[in-house]
Amino acid sequence: MSILNTEVITWFFACKVEDVPANGGVCVKYNDEQIALFNFARRGEWYASQNLCPHRMQMALSRGMTGTQQGEPKVACPFHKKTFSLEDGRCLSDEHECSITVYPVRVEDDRVYIGINNGKEEAVVMA
Ligand code: FES
């Protein structure tokens, strides 16, 4: 017998593909949270992060500019241009700056879903 810890992801319908401009972002609400959703069309990829920029606590990242740094997708806050990785959320401008939360994104047909981690769930495996 062993115990597995697995993450529980809840996927919620965020919007349709056409609602997000190519190479731009929108703000999506999930309960009380604001999530920035990005259609990184240049790479054919989608990303999501918290909308709150931790630098000066501005709800701004959905209006940020997307780009890459050494091949890594990033977003630059429109206020003071701090940049954050869209892969793992760490601040790329200053290693001492706060990181941001990123979320997985799934696109099915023309519908975009964002995954929210609802914590760990223990599964007992009988062998
Ligand atoms: S508020 Fe985002 S970089 Fe300053």
Automatic annotation (TrEMBL):
InterPro entries: NasD-like, Rieske-like_NirD, Rieske_2Fe-2S, Rieske_2Fe-2S_sf. It comes from the Bacteria. Residues 12-114 form the Rieske domain. Keywords: 2Fe-2S, Heme, Iron, Iron-sulfur, Metal-binding, Nitrate assimilation, Oxidoreductase. SUPFAM superfamilies: ISP domain. This is Nitrite reductase small subunit NirD. PANTHER family: NITRITE REDUCTASE (NADH) LARGE SUBUNIT. Pfam families: Rieske_2.
